[in-house]
Amino acid sequence: MTVHLLKDAILRSSTGVNEGRIRFNLANGYIAQKLLFRRDLERKPVSIRLFRLIWPMLNQRRLLMPLVQPKGIWCFYSSRLVSQLAEMIGDRACLEIAAGDGTLSRFLAKAGVNVTATDNYSWDDSIDFPSSVIRQDARTALREHRPQVVICSWPPAGNHFEQHVFSTASVELYIVISSTNELSTGNWASYRRQETFDLAMDERMSKLVLPPEVAHGVYVFRRRPSDNVVSKQP
Length: 234
Description:
single chain, alpha/beta, Rossmann fold, 2 domains, seven-stranded mixed sheet, two-stranded antiparallel ribbon, 33% helix, globular
């Protein structure tokens, strides 16, 4: 009961709605649907130019994320972000872990990326997983696919699977799309504990994750050159 009340309090705080059902009015719902979705809750790459023009017109825009998060939607990807991610990944084999409904991998594949989407289906009561998302936990997926690049969008806070990315020898690059709030997403203990990757926040790409009301961050881990890694003696 306490958890339920806490969730209700957070929802009221983020939406400004104190009672009754949270929902868009007809105009806001129609505009949000056309701007962000292809149909129903199937997301589409968002034109950043169109978004910046239309989004300020929605007077109920802070309702968006509380409405879609129960379906496993934590952000929206601009078409410019997808292009820049594809350029960063290049022709290297890419693995998405905790892929959810596979939206990001679908966008990257259309941009020419050799990407495999995986998820352990732990959210199968909320997400309709397509056949394109392989049912695999992250550790198994890393071991079997041996990717050069790994990407993860909004990994759960304090999760136990990201640590395996840093111990997978094939991984050269790890890209995390998440929040700048360390308490809300990602395994920051593992981020700081690992010693084989350099971490930097990409400010330019962070601004291309939508909506801007959420403090998004795109974090890029690059494996250090082997000659810069100091081996520890037991």
